[in-house]
Design goal:
The protein is of the alpha/beta class and about 210 residues long. The chain is about 25% helix and about 25% strand. It is globular and about 55 Å long. InterPro entries: 7-CO-7-deazaguanine_synth-like (IPR024924), Aldolase_TIM (IPR013785), rSAM (IPR007197), rSAM_sf (IPR058240).
């Protein structure tokens, strides 16, 4: 049971339910191949059946951690931080992003967009899910749209979502890992016919790194 004082700190973003944080290589999307410090925050109710971090869903399993301590760890390793989840926008991210920017650390987020935007971001990767669609406000500020392709119907979903983002938004199709052998050839064919899209692969899994 979280006491009232801890809950107040969580509400302010001065504590967050940290699942894990680690320094690695960005494996997906526009920034693939770049070194970054990942902060994975627990809690998600979007409920993708193919999610590969389902242990992140229950925020109660991940103890509230002082945000200042998370920032201090991040500063030791990298000049770019990626905040992910779970669904990180379930939490107030103003405090952590302000603290990172004060230390000249760039902030990236990977989100489904299903919750109101908080925080100050250098890069927003929007990865919409059919189970809980993004709020309208995030489409115009998204730098990158990343659609996970599990079946053929996801191509139609991708185009529907692409019609809502700005013309400068980078568009990516990424095969869902467990179905990659079936869907990757279809994505290759689709991108060749629709070159406004690019292919994203989970290269960190091929490289066997976190």
């Amino acid at each position: 049971m979280i006491n009232q004082h801890t809950q107040e700190l969580i509400n302010k973003g001065e504590m967050l339910p940290l699942m894990e944080d680690f320094y690695t290589i960005q494996g997906e999307g526009f920034h693939t191949g770049k070194a970054a410090y990942f902060i994975r925050i627990g809690g998600c109710d979007v409920g993708c059946h193919w999610c590969d971090v389902k242990e992140s869903w229950n925020a109660k399993l991940h103890p509230p951690t002082k945000t200042d301590a998370i920032v201090e760890n991040a500063k030791k390793y990298a000049n770019t931080v990626v905040i992910t989840g779970g669904e990180p926008l379930m939490w107030n991210l103003d405090y952590i992003t302000n603290a990172l920017h004060q230390s000249n650390v760039k902030t990236h987020i990977e989100t489904s967009g299903a919750y109101k935007i908080s925080g100050k971001w250098n890069w927003i990767c929007l990865s919409p899910k059919k189970t809980k669609l993004p709020l309208n406000d995030i489409y115009i500020v998204a730098n990158e749209l990343k659609i996970i392709v599990y079946n053929k119907n996801d191509f139609k979903f991708a185009e529907e979502q692409a019609s809502k983002v700005s013309k400068n938004c980078e568009l990516f199709l990424q095969p869902e890992w467990s179905n990659r052998e079936k869907m990757t050839p279809l994505i290759v064919d689709y991108v060749m016919k629709n070159p406004n899209w690019k292919i994203s692969l989970q290269t960190h899994k091929y490289l066997n790194i976190p």
